[in-house]
Amino acid sequence: MAEQLEQLLHSPLLVLPLNAVAFLFGLMLYRRSGTTLLHPIVGASAMVAAVLWSLDIDYPDYQRASGLLYALLGPAVVALAVPLKQNLGIIRRAGWPLAVTLVVGAALAPVVAILIALLAGATEPALLALAGKSVTTPVALAVADKIHAAQSLTVGIVLFTGVVGAVLGPPLLHRLEIRDHRVIGFALGINAHAIGTARALEISALCGAFAALAMGLCGALTAIALPLLAGVFN
Amino acid sequence: MEAFRPIAHWLGGAAILLGCSLLGDLLSDRLSLPVPGPVVGMLLLLAGLMIYGSVPRGLALVSSQLLRLLALLFLPAATGVFFLRHLDATDWLAILAATTVGTLLSFTLCALLLKKLLRDGGGERGDG
């Protein structure tokens, strides 16, 4: 009996509903609090961690039992092509300033972060995980896999980056007298991915469209460039 | 038969996503591409959609559903943050500095650059 219970605790039968319930809990917490700081993943992951600890389930076992969710990450990355296609007309109108900013911004975000971390004395696992910090999570996970960075740390960094950019970014630009919604949206999409895009949609539809466009293009560009660079340095 | 049409659309959309994802994995693997398989799949789909000219209804539906569930999909990986053991205090401080200071720095530089380029290029104003 005890053995069967043990098996149930480590099977998808328990773990998948646990994930779903935790996700709904995180979503509710986020909506009730109304603050970007409590992104749904914050409450959800804290709840899962608490359950794993109290039931004494090993993290690798939990991970294995969550295989279905990992399997859906691939199709989710592919699905990003749809909003990208829908927003493609915008880039044709704004033209080359967007293209230049995209390339510079996509390079600047990881370079600045890695330089600061190097100066602060970080070791290689931390530096690798910082490389994908500004791209949307499913892409960052795929990249982390390619350059052998720790997936969990990568997700944590990506989410934290998104929250910092989305919460502190727009007021900062306001102080610098930058009011153009195209500029605010594009900067949010490049530096704060999906969390920044959600924030941009609250500012205006134009702001949101530019953020979604920047997020998609930045993700694709980083996913192509980063593993190439990592290959050169190794 | 009418009633089955939305289901057929949905299944078609899901099949396109799954097919592109598998094809991307296969290409990335067989050709030893540095680009992750799912991203190859995304680029394939984007190219396909640009040739096709519009987004099929079922595909748009499945995509938006999947993207709304993103947080659930990366929940297992995110939970791992609570179980990281091999990083010391220096690493955590460095990561904190890089994500806060670094993000705001690159964010601001990005915005200043685009603002200057748009003004020089004489694009229409986008205040709203």
UniProtKB/TrEMBL annotation, chain A:
<feature type="transmembrane region" description="Helical">
    <location>
        <begin position="96"/>
        <end position="120"/>
    </location>
</feature>
<protein>
    <submittedName>
        <fullName>LrgB family protein</fullName>
    </submittedName>
</protein>
<feature type="transmembrane region" description="Helical">
    <location>
        <begin position="153"/>
        <end position="173"/>
    </location>
</feature>
<keyword id="KW-1133">Transmembrane helix</keyword>
<dbReference type="Pfam" id="PF04172">
    <property type="entry name" value="LrgB"/>
</dbReference>
<keyword id="KW-0812">Transmembrane</keyword>
<feature type="transmembrane region" description="Helical">
    <location>
        <begin position="37"/>
        <end position="55"/>
    </location>
</feature>
<feature type="transmembrane region" description="Helical">
    <location>
        <begin position="12"/>
        <end position="30"/>
    </location>
</feature>
<feature type="transmembrane region" description="Helical">
    <location>
        <begin position="67"/>
        <end position="84"/>
    </location>
</feature>
<feature type="transmembrane region" description="Helical">
    <location>
        <begin position="209"/>
        <end position="233"/>
    </location>
</feature>
<dbReference type="InterPro" id="IPR007300">
    <property type="entry name" value="CidB/LrgB"/>
</dbReference>
<keyword id="KW-0472">Membrane</keyword>
UniProtKB/TrEMBL annotation, chain B:
<keyword id="KW-0812">Transmembrane</keyword>
<protein>
    <submittedName>
        <fullName>CidA/LrgA family protein</fullName>
    </submittedName>
</protein>
<keyword id="KW-0472">Membrane</keyword>
<feature type="transmembrane region" description="Helical">
    <location>
        <begin position="66"/>
        <end position="86"/>
    </location>
</feature>
<dbReference type="InterPro" id="IPR005538">
    <property type="entry name" value="LrgA/CidA"/>
</dbReference>
<keyword id="KW-1133">Transmembrane helix</keyword>
<dbReference type="Pfam" id="PF03788">
    <property type="entry name" value="LrgA"/>
</dbReference>
<keyword id="KW-1003">Cell membrane</keyword>
<feature type="transmembrane region" description="Helical">
    <location>
        <begin position="92"/>
        <end position="114"/>
    </location>
</feature>
<feature type="transmembrane region" description="Helical">
    <location>
        <begin position="33"/>
        <end position="54"/>
    </location>
</feature>
<feature type="transmembrane region" description="Helical">
    <location>
        <begin position="7"/>
        <end position="27"/>
    </location>
</feature>
